[in-house]
Amino acid sequence: MSSSFRAPQLDIDLRPGKPPILRTDANGDALSWVAEHRDALRAVVAEHGSVLLRGLGPRDAAETGAVFRVMGPTGLMTEKEAFAPRQTYPGGVYSSSKWPANQPMCMHHELSYTLEFPGLMLFACLSAPTDGGATGVADSPSVLDALPGELIERFEREGWLLIRVYNDDIGASWAEAFGTEDRGAVESYCRANAIDFEWQPGGGLRTRQRRSAVVRHPVTGRRCWFNQIAFLSEWTIDPEVREYLVDVYGADALPFNTRFGNGDPIGEDVIQLINKVYEANTAREPWQAGDLMLVDNIRTAHSRDPYEGPREVLVAMAAPVRLADCSPTVEVTTR
Q: Which ranges carry the TauD/TfdA-like domain (predicted)?
């Protein structure tokens, strides 16, 4: 059964298991169409947490960037602390993260380990894969309600800890993540953003940052499960890949891992439970070339399914939000 929600001038198709979908009549002029309907689109995202626009048809990175910038109320953000390298296009547009096509990207909220993160994520598909590769979405208040109360209480009390060991082999290097090869600039950024850091022999960098796992949406006040606890956990990595990384780097020097806020390990059973709840609340729709997706990054988590064939999805981040404005449950101290 399907239903329809009518925002001004827009008919949104709502179906179980699917994100809200709007079929546009852009007629090859994506920029003008989005500019005309911008306020109505923002109302749809505020109502539902995301919307997939079908038929806009941006043709390249330049046109996609222009469309993105119309939707970003204060311009597009520059990514900091990236976990994986991306190709960078002019004006705040990026490729999707370089991640093995045969491996899923678990549900997460973009840059939820930073002190300022995007309130709005924008995705545009220039080339759809032959199979798989959907960007799934999940309602974070629903995920929060479905997780065990005792687990939520612990994460609210302690927060979560992200541990990263930057190297030149796996994921983004520290120079890529921080946008500079100046060690002094990296140290200043870390101090200003409540990140403990330690330079490693050979030039690597190890960081630790404690963040809230549950926040309140700055507009609606709704409690949201907002983190990357499962995505950046050792237990979400493919078992064979994890075994290889442990053999090469050691269990305490994985490129990234998560723990409870007090430093205790998070068991595989907890990560499996979180991912199971995510999957039960996931809505997905296969990409078609020309699609655009808008996602409220606090209200809605997103993921990426494994895929086959070429896939080109461009990404931008907009509407910056400060963690301090989201009622964090754990205190962070900058220096």
A: 31-317
pLDDT tens sequence across 122-172: 999 999 999 999 999 999 999 999 999 999 999 999 999 999 999 877 778
Task: Say what the pTM is.
Answer: 0.94
Rounded distance between C-alpha atoms, residue 65 and residue 313, angstroms? 12
> Around Cβ 97, how many Cβ atoms within 10 Å?
18
The CA radius of gyration of the chain, in Å to the nearest whole number, is 19
Phi, psi at 4, each rounded to 5°: -135, 135
Q: What are phi and psi of 301, to 5 degrees?
A: -80, 160
55-108: per-residue pLDDT in tens? 998 889 999 999 999 998 789 999 999 888 889 999 999 999 888 899 899 999
Residue 43's Cβ-count burial label (10 Å; 0-12, 13-18, 19+) is middle
Q: Which secondary structure element, helix H or strand E, spans residue 95, and what is its range? A: strand 93-95
Nearest of 91, 63, 88 to residue 76 by alpha carbon: 91
Report all structural domains of the chain as residue ranges with CATH numbers, in order of start.
3-130+285-320 (3.60.130.10), 142-275 (3.60.130.10)
Distance CA(111)–CA(317), nearest Å, equals 10
Q: Residues 192-220, buried b or exposed e (16+ Cβ, 10 A)?
A: ebbbebeeeeeebbbbbbbbbbbbbbeee
What whole-number distance in Å separates Cα of residue 261 and Cα of residue 264?
Answer: 7
Beta carbons of 231 and 108 less than 8 angstroms apart: yes
> Is the CA virtual torsion 80, 257, 86, 28 positive or negative?
negative
